[in-house]
Write a structure and sequence with these properties.
P-loop_NTPase, Rossmann fold, nucleus, Centromere_Cenp-M, centromere, Centromere protein M, alpha/beta
Amino acid sequence: HLATSLPLPSERDHLRPGIDLIVFMIDIKSKYSLKKVEASLAYVDGSFFLGKVCFLVTGVGRVNYCSIDTSAICKLGEAYCSPVLFCELELEGIRVATAQRLLRMLQICAGFVPGVSALSFGLLMRKSADD
């Protein structure tokens, strides 16, 4: 399911399935995109930041058009203990690899990968980013 911002409308709460993973998309060419994500973060329960949230930064292949400093986004990921993925959606190979990575994250968060929890996966993601 896709939403342009949070909170989600309450009129369909009874029809909405459980949420296993939240992916906040940030367009690096738009400061408004980052502001919208920052405003939406207040509506996410704190327990979700334990392995069930990630930030997907798009447009990174066009460095000349960046409106957001990548360090600001990395600090956001650190502040919310959530991984930050950078990608360029216009390149098919990177788009496919990113989709596969997000799907694997979703499988883990939904509990479909035995022996791996969302929390342990989140810690592994953070550790690999630190290396």
